[in-house]
Predict the 3D structure of the following.
Amino acid sequence: MKKIVIIISGILLFTIFTSLSAQSCDILYFCERYDTELGEINVGDRFYSGNLTVMVLLAAPIYYTKVYVQLDKYNPRNNTFEYHMDEEFTVEPDMDYMYFNDIYFEDKGFFRVFLLDPTKNTIVSALIEII
């Protein structure tokens, strides 16, 4: 009986620590648009072509004043992601929650989207499918 209690306690503690660490990381995600009163509208990772909003939630403030959102498009012929476009944005150094409106996804396909620092190093990235 003692072993069962120890095993269950271990599993419970593991579950708690795993969920806590998952919430303390950087994340990039997508929505149709961001409204200052309603928040994110229609969050997802599969959209029709057009303008979308890239959302970023960081575990710590961004520190930088200039960042880039870069799109790499998947090329199935080469089985690689290839540079598609990037756009520069100005942010406040103390921000940890940001949104970048009107990122235009014109082509259908899979895109890898990056938030890059001023020297073009990756801060966070995610995948999106445009149908």
Summary: The chain is about 15% helix and 55% strand. The first strand starts at residue 27 and ends at 35.
